[in-house]
């Protein structure tokens, strides 16, 4: 069975005064239906740009190369049968049909992603009408309230009339989730469904892939936990695949089946979450773990140096200037991803030694 989404050498190039840069460089991975993949890395490592490439929302002048095959089950706007399409070569009209219907995204920073002069309900209604232009106003209003209730927003009728600045950070994030899933046909909130019963009757109209770009940034830990639990519930009930973008290893451990660690636009390690977190095979992943707070009190060890500029990447491994384990060969050429265990790969020539 084909994966839900398969990236093959995805590369994004952006023009700058210093020349073309590659915030996403030769990225390949697969994501199965219902699976959760955590994309982890420092700011500037290309995580958000990869998501924008899949959504067809790259900045003006940017260009994408490679392949991004997506298995659409919802069909096009005319109800076409399931098909496998390359997201990078879709015409704009077909891309609009996929965006929001098959692939939904929760954007980073809801206060800037939401329109500050539009009521929350009006913004969700706009997302509904984008794919269901023939609905009456009453049907749209009903779906708006259902979307807010599905995202566990209390008092949805009142919240729909409010502006983004009148909501707390957690409620704004829930409003973003409601907007992302507004095309779903199910009308009752998930809390009212029978316990453990999947939404089989309506799930066919829910997006198959949900991209969550730093959905818990700037939230306190209590609200963060609520958002993560909500995403887990939506994933179970709607059968969503989840691409979860974050820089927080503690968060990704709670939501992801697999982890892909990015550095300077490339994936440097990928594997099952527990395997990557307990037995990292790339020095960068190990450095991130040493720099992250743990339940056991210990001194945090920051990674020395900074992420290299994309306009001046080293000729070999991009992490080589910061790596305590580097050898002469590391500066010669970019290493390939090498097997580091079952379903576990790392972009390091010292994989065998690291495993020992």
Strand content: 15-25%
Largest beta sheet: strand ordering:
6-7-8-3-9-10-12-11
List the uncertain runs: 75-81, 187-204
Tell me the Rg in angstroms: 21 Å
Reported CATH architecture of the largest domain: 3-Layer(aba) Sandwich
Largest beta-sheet details:
8 strands, mixed
Domain module tally: 2
Helix content: 25-40%
Task: Based on the model shown, name its key terms.
Rossmann fold, alpha/beta, 356 residues, eight-stranded mixed beta sheet, four-stranded antiparallel beta sheet, 12 strands
Q: SSE layout and pairings?
A:
Layout lengths: L4 E12 L2 E13 L4 E5 L6 H9 L7 E10 L10 E4 L5 H7 L4 E4 L3 H4 L6 H10 L7 H14 L5 H5 L8 H12 L28 E5 L7 H18 L2 E6 L2 H7 L2 E6 L2 E7 H6 L4 H8 L47 E4 L2 E3 L4 H5 L1
Parallel strand pairs: 3-8, 3-9, 6-7, 7-8
Antiparallel strand pairs: 1-2, 1-4, 4-5, 9-10, 10-12, 11-12
Helix pairs in contact: 4-5, 4-7, 5-7
Overall description:
The chain has 12 helices and 12 strands. By secondary structure, the chain is an alpha/beta fold. It has 2 domains: 5-256, Rossmann fold, CATH 3.40.50.300; 263-355, no CATH class. The strands form 2 sheets. An 8-stranded mixed β-sheet has the order 6-7-8-3-9-10-12-11, sandwiched between helices. A 4-stranded antiparallel β-sheet has the order 2-1-4-5. β7 (209-213), α8 and β8 (241-246) form a beta-alpha-beta unit. The radius of gyration is 21 Å and the shape is globular. The two termini are 35 Å apart.
């Amino acid at each position: 069975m084909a994966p839900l989404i398969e990236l093959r050498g995805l590369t994004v190039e952006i023009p700058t005064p210093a020349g073309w840069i590659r915030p996403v460089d030769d990225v390949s991975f697969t994501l199965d239906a219902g699976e959760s993949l955590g994309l982890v890395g420092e700011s500037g490592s290309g995580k958000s740009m990869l998501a924008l490439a899949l959504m067809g929302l790259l900045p003006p002048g940017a260009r994408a190369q490679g392949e991004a095959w997506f298995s659409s089950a919802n069909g096009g706007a005319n109800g076409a049968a399931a098909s496998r399409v390359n997201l990078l070569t879709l015409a704009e009209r077909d891309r609009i049909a996929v965006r929001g219907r098959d692939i939904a995204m929760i954007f980073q920073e809801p206060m800037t992603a939401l329109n500050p002069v539009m009521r929350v309900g009006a913004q969700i209604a706009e997302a509904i009408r984008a794919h269901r232009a023939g609905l009456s106003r009453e049907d749209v209003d009903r779906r708006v309230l259902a979307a807010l209730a599905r995202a566990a927003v209390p008092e949805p009728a009142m919240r729909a009339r409010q502006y983004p600045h009148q909501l707390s950070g957690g409620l704004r994030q829930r409003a973003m989730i409601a907007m992302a899933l507004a095309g779903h046909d199910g009308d009752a909130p998930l809390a009212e469904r029978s316990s453990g019963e999947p939404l089989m009757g309506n799930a066919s109209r829910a997006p198959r892939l949900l991209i969550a770009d730093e959905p818990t940034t700037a939230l306190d830990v209590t609200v963060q936990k609520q958002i993560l639990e909500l995403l887990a519930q939506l994933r179970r009930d709607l059968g969503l695949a989840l691409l979860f973008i974050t820089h927080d290893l503690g968060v990704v451990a709670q939501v992801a089946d697999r982890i892909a660690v990015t550095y300077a636009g490339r994936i440097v390690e990928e594997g099952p979450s527990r395997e990557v977190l307990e037995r990292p095979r790339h020095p960068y992943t190990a450095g991130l773990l040493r720099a992250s707070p743990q339940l056991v009190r210990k001194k945090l060890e920051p990674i020395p140096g900074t992420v290299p500029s994309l306009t001046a990447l080293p000729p070999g491994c991009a992490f080589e200037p910061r790596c305590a384990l580097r050898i002469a060969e590391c500066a010669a050429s970019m290493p390939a991803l090498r097997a580091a265990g079952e379903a576990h790969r790392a972009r390091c020539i010292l994989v065998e030694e690291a495993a020992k």
